[in-house]
Amino acid sequence: MSDVWKPSVTVAAVVHRQQQGRQEFLMIEEITPDGIRINQAAGHLDPHESLEQAVIRETLEETAHDFVPEALVGTYMSKFISPKTGEEVTYLRFAFCGQIVAKHDRPLDKGILRAMWMSYEEIVACQDQHRSPLVLRCLEDFLAGQRAPLQLMYTHPNVNNK
């Protein structure tokens, strides 16, 4: 067994729209070991995929929407200790903003109760239900205009080799 510490790499999609003069964000409600939580469409990087491929896949699986990443909002790191199990995990999150281009009639990923549009104020009001403190931080950075071009992300072709 290796003594090398490895964080858990995750991706998240920050998707917004203007609806009747109100800015809304696409969020998910999910069942976790610590109860029902609110999050962006997010999940783990799988073997043989780039970070961009991961956020596209996770958004489809959790919201039934096709997602086109346009920019990297930020890279975030946070330690989580489960209040129920005591398990400790450090997450390294790559948050992307972009657009949804299609909605599909398909079941959502296991554990996802629903995808929903929420205002920033509604998201702030339910912070105690957020999956992590990174949920709000990603939105705040997005609203502040923080963006990095996708060209900063490079995946060597050998990653996709199975």
Notable characteristics:
alpha+beta, 46% strand, globular, 8 strands, 3 helices, Nucleoside Triphosphate Pyrophosphohydrolase, 162 residues, 8-stranded mixed beta sheet
Which CATH top level class fits? Alpha Beta
Low-confidence stretches: none
Overall geometry comes to: globular
* Percent of sequence in beta strands: over 45%
Rounded Rg:
16 Å
Helical percentage: 10-25%
Distance between the termini: 24 Å
Can you count the helices? 3
The overall number of domains is: 1
Query: What is the CATH superfamily classification?
Result: Nucleoside Triphosphate Pyrophosphohydrolase
| CATH topology term | Nucleoside Triphosphate Pyrophosphohydrolase
Structural class: alpha+beta
How does this model look, in words?
This protein has helices at 51-63, 120-125, 134-143; strands at 8-19, 22-32, 35-39, 41-44, 65-81, 88-103, 112-119, 148-149. The protein has 162 residues and is of the alpha+beta class. It has one domain: Alpha-Beta Complex (Nucleoside Triphosphate Pyrophosphohydrolase), CATH 3.90.79.10. The two termini are 24 Å apart. The model has no long low-confidence stretch (mean pLDDT 94). It holds the Pfam family NUDIX. This is Phosphatase NudJ.
What secondary-structure arrangement, pairings included, does this model have?
Elements (H helix, E strand, L loop, with lengths): L7 E12 L2 E11 L2 E5 L1 E4 L6 H13 L1 E17 L6 E16 L8 E8 H6 L8 H10 L4 E2 L13
Parallel strand pairs: 1-6
Antiparallel strand pairs: 1-2, 1-4, 2-3, 2-7, 5-6, 5-8
Pfam families: NUDIX (PF00293)
EC number: 3.6.1.-
InterPro entries: NUDIX_hydrolase-like_dom_sf, NUDIX_hydrolase_dom, Nudix_hydrolase_domain, NudJ
